[in-house]
Amino acid sequence: MSASVSVALLDRSYGDERTYAAASIVKVSILAALLDEGRPLSARERELADAMIVRSDNDAATALWETIGGAAGLDAMHERLGLTQTRAESAWGLTRTTARDQLTLMRAWMPMSDTGLWVVHSVGRAGAG
Which long-range contacts (CB under 8 A, 24 or more apart) does 19-25 make? Predict the structure, then answer.
């Protein structure tokens, strides 16, 4: 079995907060906005969420982007969670974000284990019945 690992480092002494195009990582924000609606997901939404996260399916992301209200819906969720530098664009992949905002999103939606590692499988709650 093989695994892939990604690492983020937040250096609080570094003052320059650079933004970058989120590209496919915005799919986590789209999922968070969908879950933030506080209602059970339909079977179709669960299917699309699974495809968007597991296979990085762009068509699924676009369908869910429309479901959450596009850029306005995504920015509303970002504001509720305290992502201060992330701004959605008319095309979801062009959304601008920062490393700090991505860590804020992770803290809000993914619990951290006692070892300090993210419990990544928690995003799978979108697929839970």
Answer: 19/85, 19/96, 19/97, 19/98, 20/96, 20/97, 20/98, 21/93, 21/94, 21/95, 21/96, 22/86, 22/93, 22/94, 22/95, 22/96, 22/97, 23/93, 24/56, 24/61, 24/93, 25/97, 25/102
